[in-house]
Amino acid sequence: MGYNSVVLVMNDYLHQIKNDAQFGYKMWDAISSFNYPPAHQPYISGIQVAAVHHADSTSLVATGASRSRLLGYGHCQDNDEQLLAKVLQNIRNKSK
């Protein structure tokens, strides 16, 4: 298996995206730069890369207010309850 990316697309920008001949390159650049410090990540109007992860993991992402944020990861075979429990434990560990 390879890697997956979770990308938020803001619908207000769909017309701009449709007419952007460089959009494929911009998307590639944003996904490829995901793990770089924020100052080195490209800005693309209407797009935010929320997560890039191995296909054997599952990412839990929250979206709202034209933003997305990664809440945490689990294994691809986790059921919903297991995934939520892992993410909650990770959040609790971070706040200690």
Structure description:
With 96 residues, this protein is α+β, with helices and mostly antiparallel strands. It has one domain. It is built from three helices and four strands, in the order E-H-H-E-E-E-H. The strands form two sheets. A two-stranded antiparallel ribbon has the order 1-2. The mean pLDDT is 91.
Summarize the structure.
The protein has 96 residues and is an alpha+beta fold. It is built from three helices and four strands.
Number of beta-strand segments: 4
Gross morphology? elongated
For the sheet with most strands, the description reads: 2 strands, antiparallel
The total of helices stands at 3
Q: Strand order, main sheet: write it out.
A: 1-2
Helix proportion: 25-40%
Q: In percent terms, what proportion of residues is strand?
A: 25-35%
Regions with little confidence, pLDDT below 50 for 5+ residues: none
**Rg from alpha-carbon coordinates:** 15 Å
How many independent structural domains? 1
How far apart, in Å, are the first and last alpha carbons?
A: 34 Å
What's the overall average pLDDT, rounded? 91
Topology (SSEs and partners):
Layout: E1 3-9, H1 14-18, H2 23-32, E2 47-54, E3 57-64, E4 67-75, H3 80-94
Short descriptors:
96 residues; alpha+beta; two-stranded antiparallel sheet; two-stranded antiparallel ribbon; 3 helices
